[in-house]
Amino acid sequence: MNGMKAFAMALAVLLVGSLVPLGLAEANGEANDTEAYTGVLDNATREALIAERLVENLQKLSRFAEDKIEGLKDKLPENSTILTHYNMAEEYKERAVEEYNAGDYYNSILDSLTAMHHYRVALSAIREAGEKVQDARERLRMGIERTTEYFRFVEKTIKMAENQGIDVSNLTALYNETKAAYKAVLDDLKAGDYEKAKEDYEVAEEKKALLDEELRKVREQLAYANADKIVRDFLDKGEKGIEIVEKAIEAGEENGQNVTELQEKLDAFSEVYEQVKALADEGKWEEALSVMNDNRETIGDFHRAVNFVLRKARERELDEKMKNLRGFLKEMNDRIQKDGKALQGLRRRGVDTRRAELGLRVAVEELRMGIHFLGKKKPADARAHFAIALESLHRVEEFILAHS
To answer: Which residue range forms the structural domain that includes residue 340?
Structure first.
């Protein structure tokens, strides 16, 4: 505060000093007392004019700030930057007006300048907060849009379970409630009510947690009805995962990295894998599935390790590509166009491409968000969105390759 007061004092001195007639600055000893007194009166008059002009501008700035801030007061914590500087600005404004009315023009100038500073800090904080809210609103909207694929998965599960004679009444009810809850969030965002959207999003997430649990139960019942298919899928993915981790361990050892934990996860998974494979070879699908269920933690740890290895590989790939940002964006755009055409071809052949098409839309949206953050000079945020776009595109291309 002392620093700001000093700054205001210096600025006021410059303002007032600049109004002293050049003749006074150059006056020599021949100037008489009457001339000097007249100069002082002239200077005081101009000081009053400065104070008057500042108070007028201060009143305008105060009204502008009030329009922006009054509606936010109840939503902000008392110690927020916005309210702290706004309240200080109001205090200095009142003092400046009182000092002006009392003829204390010099101090009125100082306090007017100080008040203006605090108003501007408060208004700048509002603008920055607005930008953050807009970014958060965009992330919230994208998060909700990603539930589209999740709901399709639930719908598919319900149909499959019904065909197997499994009771899905609870699952269906929770599905409808959760979908309606997320729709309410989208409606809030469309109406511009971000605070309501945040509240409704929490409700939607709670409902989704209940839906997840019921979905897990139904999926487990379905699993035993389709044990052979699930076991074969496990063995296929497990074989690929083992190959990925073995290569990662080999590369890590060559680079002198500690790969002990990764090796332990590989060994534990390999043991489960061999048990499941042996039972599958004998056609004991349900027993093989039981082994998988009994070792969920080991299997989950291993696949998380695989995903970690792949994610690190993607990050290295992204870092390399972003060295030539223009080239990276062109490559991504070309791949998106190519993948879009490939999915159209698969769809014409009768392949269900909805999941891959959603992944492609996610890639497009994440790429757009990355470019958006680049424009805001936020490279870290841009990189995070580019990483998601690249990962989504890889998954789409894996789907295309698997069905070509």
So the answer is: 311-404
